[in-house]
Amino acid sequence: MILDFSKMEVTVLKNFKGGAKEMFVKMFADDKNKIMLSVLKPGASIGYHKHENNCEIIFMIKGNAMVNYDNETLRLNNGQAFYCPMGHSHDLVNDTEDEIMFFAVVPELAQ
Questions:
Q1: Contacts of 68 (CB under 8 A, 6+ apart)
Q2: pLDDT tens-digit profile of 29-47?
């Protein structure tokens, strides 16, 4: 299956997961996965949240951002991936002066 993000509509999510400002996202979702191409403008963030029943992989396409992962602050740079396993918590903060773009994949694990 080919996912053509250039043909998907942008959804604006305000204060996603309790974060600041807006996230602009193009998303494919089915009962097994969420696959998202997202943009955060300067000062925007995804709020701190715990992955109770799934995990998340974030691949930074453009820019860099701060990630608070459990009790650790990390820097996610262009070309790097961040993995948040099930049972762990994270956020994603654009603390730069430029917009960032990233892919996020959230596989829904079998219960």
A1: 48, 74, 90, 91, 93
A2: 999 999 999 999 999 999 9
